[in-house]
Amino acid sequence: MTDRSSGPTASSIEETIARVRGCTQVLAVERVALDQACGRVLRESVAAREDQPPFDRSSMDGFAVRLDDASTRFRIVDRIRAGDWKPRGLSIGEAVQIATGGALPCPELQVVIREATEVEGEWLTVRERGPERCIRFRGEDARAGETLLEPGVRLSPGALGLLASLGHADPLVTRQPRVLHVATGNELVSPDLVPADGQIRDSNSTLVRTFLGQWGVTLRQLRVAEAEAVAHRAIEEAASGLGTLDLLLISGGASVGPHDFTADLLVRLGFVLHIRRTATRPGRPLLFGTRGATLAFGLPGNPLAHFVCLNLYVRQAIEGMSGVAQGGAFRSGRLTARFNDTPNARETLWPARLEITGEGVGLRPLSWRSSGDLTPLATANALVRIPPGTDLLPVGSPVRFMPTSLQP
Fold first, then answer.
1. What is the count of structural domains for the chain?
2. Which of 25, 91, 125, 369 would you label with 396, given CA atoms 20 to 30 Å apart?
3. 150 and 199 share one domain
4. Are residues 307 and 196 in the same domain?
5. pTM attached to this predicted model
6. Which residue range is the domain that position 399 belongs to?
């Protein structure tokens, strides 16, 4: 047995993040189809292959006439739908009916919107005509060869729409990490079961799975008994089926109680432990280790502590593996409700509701009773840093916070 109470001094948030990032290696790349790329990180520059738009096209349903033609009555000489290609010149007094997105037949035209006209057979009468040309001109969005996406961008639905419009159907992205999650605890049963006396439903497995799902990461999950030998065998068998394991997450057993074996288990699995506890709450008994390029976290069993550690530290590992440059995790905001609590000697990560107000970013602290309390997580989308010894912060107090989802 290792001495689980020994080891590095309790780490601050910044120290822990720096250690995780320093041990994280960017994963290899692969090309995937657009429908598999949402949430993935782009690893190449993408430039426009042709001008965007590639031709002058109408931005309205209406009638194209010569820009220098002041007539009010025109003969309709053609009709152009989106997708048609009908180059031709226009004489004074001639118009072409054109649909939104239709290619203009020649330069130096103006599109008069349908609502400003009257049509009788092949004749068009223009009731009013403003200066707007109602044309999306070739190259007004981007010129051929112009770089539109840089490496390191996380591909959102909008970015994927842009790639589709550029004909970039198989972007080069970071491969997804291979993740194994193990929930420990004799008291845990599946969420669809009625717990017996002394048992509770396993919420951490759902929390971990859906948290990683924000990045499109799928993972293998196990629930094992509170026995080191059993857990060791189960992890080795599961990991062998995944190939090279990138990330191991173990829920529970991260503290120093008589049944908390996660530190010993990680050492037995060949991991070097860099962090054994943090200086914050909830989530103080955090384990972090490495085995070559593989990362491992021993997460405290209480679900609110899970939520904090996933957002503060596991997120850093996922983004580092993806190739996302480390940015400032914390932002500035102001409280929209009073904070009032018993002072604690450690810094606290307080669940809060982020709200955009007329005065900027607001944070509403949510009530919680212990690190096992799941109720604030129903609406929490941010964590607020509460300094040690704080008992009262009035409405409007400046605070530092971190969003707890990719798009809060």
1. 3
2. 369
3. no
4. yes
5. 0.83
6. 331-403
